[in-house]
Please model this.
Amino acid sequence: MNDLLQTYNFLVDQMTNNPLLNLASAVVWLDPVWIEDDDPDDFDDEQDVVGMALRVLRKAFPEIYIDAMERIRAGATYHEIDSLICAAVNEKGIPLDNLEFLGYGIPMDAFGVELECAEFYDEHPDLVPILALFGVHPEADRYSVEVSEAAYQAGRAIAISLEDHPDLRYRDVGYLMQLLWAFSGNTLISWSQDMLAEIPPLSWNTEDIALAIEIIEEAEEIIESAQRGIQFLQSQPDVMKALGRNIKRLYRAIEKNGDTQKEVKLRLKWPKIS
Model:
């Protein structure tokens, strides 16, 4: 037996009979990304993407990491791992459509309304009659829509008026006003996706994950409430008329003040609905 083969046999024997080395081998097999590596800036192939995802998951969601490792050892394909991880992260309350997004911080979707964009009205025709009450009218063959500062001021005044209304349906209308006029205090509701892309994303640490989930849940609740508010206005002509009257009152007060930045304080009137 030559020296090289003897050396190999010696190493195998040591690995087999040394408890510490056996433990180290088990750790490497069970937890292959235990060594802290910097995440790569670019992911050239599927193996790089999966490796990056495993490093993120090991810190952020260890239980998902374990499930993913079991599936990888069972011979799962890239697309199967992609589906598994995306579904599991979505269940945690964080939207993830593609495994590659994990490497760039916590993914978040912005819902901010862009009233100046003509395409918005094509995508949301149910809002056209409501916004018309504010004097906002999209025109054919126009790329942008004119929205006055007074409209924003009036919309926010209505949101404040309905914030503590005893009828929950009116509160839903208030949330709709928060959505339309960027007045919720929630970044995902007030900002567009382009605006959100200009700031660094939250990191995959415990505090940022908790913050992201809180912001996302609040934004989703506002969206659901706003949708109910639209349905309520569509089903209640008297409320739509009252909304129009209150907007006119607010516009007169704003014009009288001569300052679209100054808060208008009016006691708005809303009909009781059975």
Observations:
- The CA atoms of residues 119 and 131 lie 14 Å apart.
- Confidence is low (pLDDT under 50) at residues 38-44.
